[in-house]
Amino acid sequence: MTEGARDLVWPDLAEGGWRSLAFEPFRDRVEIHWLERGTGGEPSVALLRYAAGARVPRHRHAGLETIVVLDGAQSDAHGTYAKGSVVINRPGTSHEVWSDEGCVVLIQWDRPVEILGDEE
């Protein structure tokens, strides 16, 4: 390990350890807990907590996005992804995301997304 480098470890995150973490507002009815917040377009990793019925508007992925559903279920136009699902969204793809029942997801994105709203 180089000087100044560090490992970040959450040993019980997938088993519910996220419940003790502090979340802050992110979007309407969606909260975030940053695990590693990239700056200047660097990759980021966070937990998103969706309230029941929450939606994230249509957005385009500038880089790879990886999602692991830790609790509940998240949906997009391609399906509904229950706890334990892994979803990979490739660069250039776009979608809207929602959760009917509420959910918590671990999300990693290489670059910030571009919000498109209702436009394609």
TrEMBL record:
SUPFAM superfamilies: RmlC-like cupins. InterPro entries: ChrR-like_cupin_dom, RmlC-like_jellyroll, RmlC_Cupin_sf. Coiled coil: none annotated. Residues 21-107 form the ChrR-like cupin domain. It holds the Pfam family Cupin_7. Transmembrane segments: none annotated. This is Cupin domain-containing protein. It comes from Marinibaculum pumilum. The lineage of its organism: Bacteria, Pseudomonadati, Pseudomonadota, Alphaproteobacteria, Rhodospirillales.
